[in-house]
Design brief:
Layout (H helix, E strand, L loop, with lengths): L3 H6 L19 H26 L1 H12 L3 H51 L3 H29 L2 H26 L4 H7 L1 H10 L7 H6 L3 H12 L6 H15 L15 H16 L2 H14 L4 H26 L1 H27 L7 H20 L2 H9 L2 H32 L1 H22 L8 H10 L1
Length: 471
């Protein structure tokens, strides 16, 4: 059997990992230890993702004051992360397939570290732009590879719960940026962002690669060793290993994947499910809510700092609850509940603006707005936050996962940019109309989820793939 250092090196090819679903075994805390450790190390990248995205909000005033940036210059600094993330999304699948899931995470941690250091030493806008772009590029890769890695190493009964920890740690990273940024300087905040990157980089030396990626990369010895480490020394891995090998063997008989293969009959349903969910995750207006929350809290007489912390705490608590529930209730019920709650929250906010514009029931306006924001963010965290990433990691077969996952991740970041870019224009057009528009997107999301999204709870990845390709 290969040792962990052998797996780290990736055998004679110098590659690292693999993909394929893992069968359920008996509940055994010793057996699951490495699964939990591997996932915990991977989601350090999720924390880095969240803290990087959240950096620009608390850092705005101190950076503008110290470096003398204009609003337009800071807007470039804030938005260039999304540009970097979209480019990272276009390359993430190729990178993860070429150097492994661990290799992609390690590369991202180094790029993110370089980006944060560039921000820390910046004396002017150009270095800030470079640092923010590099950070965005790394986040674009991490947003794809972490849910894929966690989905590939986790047993069926825990895949939803452990997979949802990705969103939980993204939210925790965001919250930490807001809280630390309220008390620390912007350079110190950049240095704090290095901690999860360092933990991810060194932690990856302690865990095995994804067995599925190793099998797909023809590293048979390393594949079995990695699966043995993840399932425990006493576990019988023969059935699971045979299933993975059988799946990989059938995939190797297929022609080399091109973009057009995503639209084949065998793959199109997975593409529609993943791209559709990711598009709706953004088009329901989450970035508009995040950007406008401070104004809503201020207009209601709330301290915006307290409001932001409350906003963040709700996200963390509900995301943690989702991780506990998702393997019991299933993906579809939580997604439907989430989209329905988003519809309610959007309507409450829209009504508050409508009443304010027509000077009706003015005393109700701030209360409707605050309740709407808190309802919206709570229900987003229940399903539409984690769900699309989890579903994406489950529905694509190994041979198209790189291309398909890259497309889905790009859609997420493009949607994020689109909503962010259009939000102020829409608000100038009509404040209430903006949130009625988002409410209509929530309604369409409910219909899409009901009609298109299969239940994947408790099924192996191979079973999920077979059901999608046979319909």
């Amino acid at each position: 059997m290969a040792s962990l250092p052998d797996i780290e090196k990736g055998g004679r090819d110098g590659k690292e990992g693999s993909e394929v679903p893992l069968l359920e075994k008996k509940d055994d805390s010793n057996r699951l230890y490495m699964v939990f450790l591997s996932s915990a190390i991977a989601v350090c990248g999720s924390f880095a993702f969240g803290s990087t995205v959240g950096y620009s909000s608390p850092a705005q005033s101190p950076i503008m004051e110290e470096l003398g940036l204009s609003y337009s210059q800071y807007s470039i600094f804030g938005s260039i992360l999304t540009i970097g993330a979209m480019i990272g999304a276009l390359t993430c699948g190729t990178i993860a397939d070429a150097i492994g899931r661990k290799g992609a995470m390690r590369l991202s941690s180094m790029i993110c570290t370089a980006g944060l250091m560039a921000i820390y030493v910046a004396k002017g806008p150009n270095m800030l732009y470079l640092g923010r772009f590099l950070s965005g590029y790394s986040v674009g890769i991490l947003s794809y590879v972490i849910p894929v890695f966690v989905g590939e190493i986790t047993p069926n009964k825990l895949r939803g719960a452990i997979g949802s920890s990705n969103q939980l740690f993204i939210v925790a990273g965001l919250s930490t940026s807001y809280v630390v940024g309220a008390f620390a300087g912007w350079r110190t905040l950049a240095l704090c962002g290095l901690a999860p990157c360092v933990l991810l980089f060194f932690g990856l030396f302690l865990i095995p690669e994804s067995p599925r990626w190793l099998a797909m990369s023809r590293q048979e010895k390393e594949f079995e060793a990695a699966l043995r480490i993840l399932r425990g020394p006493q576990a019988d891995i023969s059935e699971e290993a045979d299933l993975i090998k059988e799946n990989v063997t059938s995939l190797r008989l297929l022609p080399k994947v091109t973009v057009m293969h995503l639209f084949d009959k065998a793959n199109i349903r997975a593409v529609i499910i993943s791209v559709g969910l990711m598009a709706f995750q953004q088009l329901v207006g989450i970035n508009g809510i995040v950007y406008y929350s401070n104004y809503i809290f201020q207009s209601a007489g709330f301290n915006p700092t307290v409001g932001s912390i409350l906003f963040a705490v709700i996200q963390v608590i509900v995301s943690a609850g989702t991780a506990i529930l998702i393997d019991r209730t299933g993906r579809r019920p939580l997604l439907l509940m989430s989209a329905s709650g988003l519809l309610l929250g959007s309507l409450l906010i829209a009504m508050s603006f409508f009443l304010k514009a027509h000077e009706l029931a003015i005393h109700l306006v701030p209360h409707l707005a605050i309740i709407g924001v808190l309802v919206y963010i709570a229900f987003f965290s229940i399903g539409m936050g984690a769900g699309p990433w989890l579903i994406m990691s489950e529905v694509f077969t190994l041979h198209i996962k790189g291309l398909g996952g890259g497309l889905v991740t790009f859609m997420n970041w493009f949607g994020s940019w689109l909503v962010s870019y259009t939000f102020n224009f829409l608000m100038l057009w009509s404040s209430s109309g903006t949130f009625f528009l988002y409410a209509s997107m929530c309604l369409l999301a409910i219909i899409f989820i009901f009609k298109m999204i299969p239940e994947t709870k408790g099924r192996t990845l191979e079973e999920i793939h077979a059901s999608l390709t046979s319909n």
